Structure formats: structure tokens, C-alpha cells
Fold 6-bladed beta-propeller.
Amino acid sequence: MKYVPIGILLSLFALLVSSCSFQNNSKTGSSLLIDLSNPKENLPISSFIDDIETIKFEVPEPYFFGIITKVLFTDSTFFVVDKKQGYVYRFRQDGTFLNQVGSKGEAPGEYRALHRFFLGKQSVFISDIGMRKIHCYTHSGGYIQTISATHTSVYDDIIALPNGKFLCHDIQGRKGESKIWLMNEKGEEEKTLIYHDAPIHIAAQIGVQ
């Protein structure tokens, strides 16, 4: 059995939720097919990556890196998440520092603790799960708005959907209570898409064994 990381699963669910109309209008395309029914011990990177480029991220004083836990990217920039310090930095494709996104604090638009950072269609988000808030910023770090979720809305992972809603994954310790669910634009739980006991059960839903 092969286990699929939850980030990949959330992305697949996002495509299923938001791309029905696209599938109806699209007749051609290209994709990479990986056969998991006959696994190999080694999968050379060259089998699916043509070129590798090294980019050095440089931060000016007084900024510095603690521990980088995630790097997200758009067509023109990189977002680097420093989970140890609780900061997000944006860079050009050549590694040039552009700006910090958001800041820690108690003022409007500030977050107490960085739980998750994720990209939206035209903006970026920082979730502060302890305060049950999702802060929305421009790519250049300007504050847009804060979405206040209910205290019953708990999630371990979250991504933004093209329609403005959010796809959430909640891992509960009790059997049958872990779930993937939909949050609306107001921070309210809209509906549960699937309950599961373990990641392999989700994988089975998309045909991965």
C-alpha cells in the first residue's frame, strides 16, 4: 500500500470541487501518469524533472532565517515560510528579497501564531488557529481582511479554492471523526465531504492502492 500526503489529497479534492465546468469544455491536455501498482525502489528525479536550478534566498538586515518549513511559488515569486520565527518572506525568482507578509501581534491584521500559510487566487493567507482567524494579505504584504471562524471549526491543513471557499482537513483522535470539509467565505463550516479513519482510506477514494 502507498500512502499519499494530505497536501496532495487536498489539492486533488480542490480540483474535483472546482473544475467540473473546465472538464466539460476541455478535450485535450497533458498529464504525468505514475503507476503505483508496480512500485520501484528507486525513482530517478530525471524521470520527471528536466532541469534543476539552485536559487539562493538572501534576506537583508534585520531579517534572518530560523527554520524554513515550506516554500510556495507563483509564476514570478517565491514565498518562504519560517515556522520557527512565525514569518513569511517573499522573493523574486532570482532570490532577491521583496517583502515580509503580515506580522505578529495583537493589532488588527496581525496574527498571534502562524499555523498555516497558503496561496489564494489573488492573495495569500495566514491562519491563526489558536485565535480561529484567517488573515488575508496582498502578495506585497498589505492587509486585506480577517475571516473569523467558529471555535468548533478545527483543521490541521487548509487550502483556498478558486471560488473563495476553503478546503480543510481535520485529524481527530477518535475513530471515524477525521474528515475533509468545506469552509465558506465567512469562516463557517458549510459541509463535510468525507469522513475517514486513516490516510489510506482517503487514498482508496481516488484509486491509489
Observations:
- The domain at 53-205 is CATH 2.120.10.30 (Neuraminidase).
- The chain has one domain: 53-205.
- The first helix runs from residue 6 to 18.
- The two ends are 5 Å apart (CA to CA).
